[in-house]
Amino acid sequence: MTLTVAIGQANTAYQWLDFDRARQIDKANLPLLAEAAGADHPLTLSCASNLALDLRGLGRGGEADEMERRAVEGFKRVVREDHPWLLAARQRRRIECDIAPMPL
Fold first, then answer.
1. Contacts (Cβ under 8 Å, ≥6 apart) of 67
2. 88: closest CA among 31, 40, 48?
């Protein structure tokens, strides 16, 4: 849940046009997600797709293109073609990863 919350924190920074802060959060979170859930897990791929947008916002188009390509290819391996997160990655839209904690 903590790693999913970090995706939301990066999304908030991005919304405020703080692309560098969003990149810092996503870049730090990406290897943690890959370790905890796997490189092809939808949450990991969402973070990668969002990181591509951070890079694009910072004017780092070449890096963004490669990150976006890897995220889209990963999504295509693990979700159906009409999955909202795959569509968002293809359309260069931010992916929100909401969590619903279990009641105590």
1. 48, 49, 51, 52, 55
2. 48
User: Residue 43: its pLDDT value, please?
Assistant: 96
Residue-by-residue DSSP string for the chain? -HHHHHHHHHHHHHHTT-HHHHHHHHHHHHHHHHHHH-TTSHHHHHHHHHHHHHHHHTT-HHHHHHHHHHHHHHHHHHS-TT-HHHHHHHTT-PPP----PPP-
Which amino acid appears at position 57 of this protein? G
Model pTM? 0.94
Query: Cα dihedral sign for 86, 87, 93, 96?
Result: negative
Residue 20 vs residues 30, 36, 104: alpha-carbon distances, Å: 15, 25, 36
